[in-house]
Amino acid sequence: MTGRELRIVRQKKKFKTRFYVFLCLLFALVVTLVAVLANGKGEGILSESSLRMELSVSAAAIRDEAAVSVDRYDRVDYLVNEGASVTSGTPVATVYKWGYSDEMTQAVVRAQRAVLAEQLHQLEGIANPGLENITLQIGQKKEQLAALTMKAGAGDLLTIQNELISLLRQRSEYLKANVQPTEALSALYAAEQQQIDLLAAWKSDVAAVRDGVVSFYFDGYEDVLNAAKLSNVNADLVKSVVKAAAGGTGAVTGNLLYRIVDGQNWYIAFVTPASEPFRVAAGEQYTVVFDGYLDRPYTGTALAPVIDQTGVVNLIQFHEDMGALLNARSLKATVVKDATGFDVPLSALTVEDGVPGLTIVMADGTARIEVEVLGVSGDRAVVRAKNATDTLGAGQRYVKP
Fold first, then answer.
1. Inter-residue contact 325 to 63 (CB < 8 Å)
2. Fewer CB near the last or first residue (10 Å), C or N of the chain?
3. E strands along 31-135, which residues?
4. CA angle centred on 41, ends 39 and 47, rounded to 5°
5. H or E segment at 149?
6. What string of DSSP letters covers 91-102?
7. Alpha-carbon distance 113 to 305, whole Å?
8. Using only C-alpha atoms, what is the Rg of the chain?
9. What does the alpha-carbon distance between residue 398 and residue 228 come to, in Å, rounded to a whole number?
10. For the domain 51-64+222-248+262-399, what is the CATH code?
11. Do 92 and 78 contact (CB within 8 A), yes or no?
């Protein structure tokens, strides 16, 4: 064989070797792609990241409150304003028993007017600066009250009413102390007291059972959505209350008189699907902005979520003055969280027994690590290991389901 022929043979052998190597590599690549596509899996690498979550939710408010009821009554006089802060024992309202008649009150008024007329008759022609001063203040309060009734004045109606009652009582005490009781006046005093005692048998003051904020409005959910029954809250309850309260109120039963609310301790509950990875992480803080109250964001701390077959109940507790939310039940809100952790696509997370997890590649295979989803945005999530015995680190590989 000539030298030229030998070179041609060697070149053909070299070409065949490279060709076979290329075919083998191509085959291996095809097998890998087929395996990945067949199993629907892919891999990723963990990296530390941050994202801002803004999650729109429909929530139910849960208050730490006591609803106070009384026996059947005919009339009630409120002694404090809606939203007033009171201490335990403060009179909240005067309740008139069933069967009471306004004629009983009018009888007292007539007796008091008779007493006043006789007292003023005895003081006729005598200068009395003390009485004149009280009388002037009473006249001014009556003018304020009339203006407020006609909506032509400024001020608080109940406050002015109470101030007027206080001045009338002050005048009565002043006159009894400064007018000599004649036989006629003593008889009028006795008649007045008789009417007062008769009326007293039909009315009673109801006091605050604890410190808190007073409200006279009810929506029917004060019992089921109460901080004292937080352990009974479930997804079906929250969803039904949000739906019902959005259209009005629930059933209000009994002779409910007022609520006393701890305005510094309250919660919201909202439901997320059990199949979705996100739920609040216990101990994490979230900022919540309520529709209609955009100028007042609240910061709360998440409690452990309640998981059942119909959804996940996310609970956030607040220790800020609830203010205008005192009577709110169904709320539209945005839950905001600036989350920092390990960035993964939502598609990499699975939910088993209600707990999100991530499959991590180990030296001897794979392991599912339970995680807490700190925040979601679009198709991304930021997570951390849920259990102290598990660790996640930058550079670790994860497998998509």
1. no
2. N
3. 43-45, 47-69, 73-78, 85-86, 91-97
4. 165
5. helix 129-149
6. EEEEEEETT--H
7. 64
8. 38
9. 42
10. 2.40.30.170
11. yes
Pairwise CA distance, residues 231 & 269, whole Å: 12
Please say whether the beta carbons of 221 and 273 come within 8 A. Answer: no
Q: Residues 6 or more apart from 233 whose CB is under 8 A from it?
A: 62, 225, 269, 306, 313, 315
Where are the domain boundaries for CATH 2.40.30.170 in the chain? 51-64+222-248+262-399
pLDDT digit string (tens) for 384-399? Answer: 999 999 999 999 999 9
Query: Phi and psi dihedrals of 56, rounded to 5?
Result: -85, 130
State how far the alpha carbon of 50 is from the alpha carbons of 217, 287, 339, in Å: 43, 16, 5
Count Cβ neighbours within 10 Å for each residue of 183-199 and write b for 16 or more, e otherwise: eebeebbeebeebeeee
Q: What number of other Cβ atoms are within 10 A of residue 382's Cβ? A: 25
pLDDT in tens, 15-63: 455 545 455 455 544 334 333 333 445 889 999 999 999 999 999 999 9
Q: What's the per-residue H, E or C state across 286-344?
A: EEEEECCCCCCCEEEEECCCEEECCEEEEEEEECCCCHHHHHCCEEEEEEEEEEEEEEE
